[in-house]
Amino acid sequence: MPRTLRPGQRSELYVVDVTSGEHRLVFSSSDILFEAPNWTPDDVLIVNGNGRLFRVNDGLEEIELGGVPDINNDHVVSPDGQTVYVSADDGHLYAVPIEGGPGRRVTNDRGPGFHHYLHGVSPDGKTLAYIGLENRDGQRITNVWTIPSAGGADVQVTDDEFADDGSEYSPGGKWIYFNSERAGQAQLFRIAVGSGEVEQLTDDERVNWFPHPAPDGSAIAYVSFPPGTEGHPADIGDVRLRLLTNDGVRELTTLFGGQGTMNVPSWSPNSTQFAYVTYPI
């Protein structure tokens, strides 16, 4: 079931300028819990809510998903801006025209209980990076997978018992960034496409999720939870948005939120801003 707002709670969509640090409120609602902003190549923001997808203008303008089941907060826009790929509650990924229309299922049946959670698309638009969730002997296992955006054979990128999430391509397509518990609590990593070489990017006391590389490669935006946090829960305090650059880690803001705040690629096309959602009560 789609998440809903708690009594007295609001969804607030912000854009932050990474140079000045200025935060600008774009849209607020006390009626719908919207999540996970994407930015299209022509500077339009997209969010999900109530199992549906919306573009943000003066309000929320629904994008028709043409027969696709209710969606969650894992969706990405193709590099050419013509298609939005969504994760649906039936466990599959779908491609939908950005202006709305019939949906096309991309993913294969991988057995009962296997779910696909979309996080990234390659710079050439030919490949989707997703998290595959499966049950092995009663244990929930998540790994990084890829699949052609036109449909085809899946490729398993990681194969281990550690919790992996947030798989997203680097601007040049050489790396897939992700968060993983392979170092204990969740930290940021990247894995080289093809060779499988893994590099750890963060190592601190906080629980770090969802690395989003800027389109120009200048920084990585991510969500940082308090020490000891399990998973990426909703509606908690001391959630921080951070930038990882060549000069180190930079704090941008602290908010009340978590799940839905910044699950998917949310940088502006020119790499000067990114969008996020907070859920104040």
Automatic annotation (TrEMBL):
<dbReference type="InterPro" id="IPR011659">
    <property type="entry name" value="WD40"/>
</dbReference>
<dbReference type="InterPro" id="IPR011042">
    <property type="entry name" value="6-blade_b-propeller_TolB-like"/>
</dbReference>
<comment type="similarity">
    <text>Belongs to the TolB family.</text>
</comment>
<dbReference type="Pfam" id="PF07676">
    <property type="entry name" value="PD40"/>
</dbReference>
<protein>
    <submittedName>
        <fullName>Biopolymer transporter Tol</fullName>
    </submittedName>
</protein>
